[in-house]
Design goal:
With about 130 residues, this protein is mainly α. It is built from four helices and two strands.
Length: about 130
């Protein structure tokens, strides 16, 4: 008898990972509806509410959301690892975005609202991952 790699046990890491994953996939998909005619890695993107996005930014959101969602589905350890990884990367992206906004290196078309969202996402994801539950 083999043991399944995913379980039905609920944990804060799984709940947060699944919720953030679903939101990021949705934002990425909706982003494509507003980025028609925007360059793939344009430094200035189309507006999605108060955020700026370009097609590359949309793909990153979908990939991040899929990673978080899949890890949450697989189990608590996987969700904790993915939350910590994505939280750490978003912390770096949030800080780097403060310096990239308005520059030619801004390949994700980040604006200040994006930076705040990435820093808040980092705080929540890192917080739940470091709580180790």
């Amino acid at each position: 008898m083999t043991r399944s790699t995913h379980t039905t046990k609920t944990s804060p890491n799984r709940v947060v990972g699944a919720a953030f994953g679903a939101v990021y996939v949705l934002v990425g998909l909706v982003g494509f509806a507003v980025t028609a005619g925007t360059g793939f890695a344009a430094t200035s993107g189309a507006h999605l509410l108060i955020f700026e996005v370009n097609p590359l930014h949309n793909l990153v959101h979908i990939a991040v959301g899929a990673l978080l969602g899949l890890a949450a589905w697989r189990g608590t350890k996987q969700a904790m690892a993915a939350n910590g990884l994505v939280g750490g990367v978003y912390l770096l992206v949030g800080v780097a975005g403060l310096f990239l906004t308005g520059s030619e290196l801004n390949l994700l078309a980040l604006n200040h609202a994006d930076n705040v969202l990435h820093l808040v996402s980092a705080a929540v994801l890192l917080g739940v991952a470091l709580a180790r539950r």
